[in-house]
Structures are given as structure tokens and as C-alpha cells.
Amino acid sequence: MQNMEELYQMIAERKQNPKAGSYTDYLFTKGLDKILKKVGEESTEVVVAAKNPGDDELVYETADLFYHVLVLLVERGVSFDQIKAELAKREGKMSDYKDRPEIKNL
Ligand SMILES: N=c1c2ncn([C@@H]3O[C@H](COP(=O)(O)OP(=O)(O)OP(=O)(O)O)[C@@H](O)[C@H]3O)c2ncn1[C@@H]1O[C@H](COP(=O)(O)O)[C@@H](O)[C@H]1O
């Protein structure tokens, strides 16, 4: 089984050592705007899938979105550890949402 961090490492390896015929390499060759377009498309597909009955489409589109977000992070030079550190900072430290003015104002 491949976890998110292993997938990130594989994508980073593709960036370091481009492989002919690789879809990941294709995205890096096209560049940031193409990757951003894919992230936008895949996000919309997750939203549509979530509104439809059944889990299969939602699972499939979510996996597509996760993959493309990881490609984006590699392209922008953001490490997986940076994301883990940000999540760890939040662990058990988020105040009650009812006490947060930015949420009250939504
Ligand atoms: N997880 C993924 C993954 N998820 C989605 N995709 C690709 O993302 C694309 C999304 O499909 P779309 O129909 O939206 O896009 P498309 O029409 O094929 O292409 P575009 O011209 O729109 O960019 C498909 O081509 C999928 O193959 C992925 N491609 C690769 N991986 C992983 O990355 C690894 C390395 O892949 P390669 O770089 O291709 O060797 C693989 O072993 C996988 O583990």
C-alpha cells in the first residue's frame, strides 16, 4: 500500500529524475499553471462526486485530487514535513470554533 508520504517521495523522485512517458513528468514539464488547472478541475470533480450517491466516484476523485496536490507541493518546493508540522501544530490546539471571531463572522 502506498501512503501519502510515499507518493510524495515518488513524485519528488520524478522531478529529480524525469522518466519518459510518466504523467507526473508531463505535469512538471507543463509547469505550475497546468498543475494548478488540474488541482482546480479535480477539486470540482470531488465536489460533484460528493453530491452524487455512492462512495466510488468520491473515493476515485479524492485520490486524483490528493495526487495533484502533492504534485503541486513538489513543484512549489514545499516538503511533506512542512505539511506534517503544520498539522501537528494544530493538534489539540484549536479553540472552540464558537469563540473564534473569524468563524462567527462567516
Ligand atoms: N496517483 C497517481 C495518479 N492519480 C491520477 N493520475 C493521473 O492523473 C490523470 C488525471 O486524469 P484526467 O483525465 O483528469 O487527465 P488527463 O486527460 O489524463 O490529462 P490532462 O491532459 O488533462 O492533464 C490521469 O492521467 C491519471 O493517470 C496519477 N498518475 C500517477 N499517480 C502515481 O504516481 C506514480 C508515478 O506515475 P507516473 O509519473 O505516471 O509514472 C504512479 O505509480 C502512481 O502511484
UniProtKB/TrEMBL annotation:
Substrates-to-products reaction catalysed: 1-(5-phospho-beta-D-ribosyl)-ATP + H2O = 1-(5-phospho-beta-D-ribosyl)-5'-AMP + diphosphate + H(+)
SUPFAM superfamilies assigned to the protein according to its UniProt record, in alphabetical order: all-alpha NTP pyrophosphatases
Entry-linked InterPro entries: HisE (IPR008179), PRib-ATP_PPHydrolase-like (IPR021130)
GO CC term (a single one): cytoplasm
Alphabetized Gene3D superfamilies for the sequence: MazG-like
One example GO MF annotation: ATP binding
Pathway per the UniProt entry: Amino-acid biosynthesis; L-histidine biosynthesis; L-histidine from 5-phospho-alpha-D-ribose 1-diphosphate: step 2/9
EC number: 3.6.1.31
Location(s) in or outside the cell: Cytoplasm
Tagged with keyword Plastid: no
Transmembrane segments: none
Keywords, ordered alphabetically: Amino-acid biosynthesis, ATP-binding, Cytoplasm, Histidine biosynthesis, Hydrolase, Nucleotide-binding
Superkingdom: Bacteria
GO biological processes: L-histidine biosynthetic process
Enzyme class, broadest EC rank: hydrolase
Recorded family membership: Belongs to the PRA-PH family.
Protein name: Phosphoribosyl-ATP pyrophosphatase
Native species: Lactiplantibacillus xiangfangensis
Taxonomy of the source species: Bacteria, Bacillati, Bacillota, Bacilli, Lactobacillales
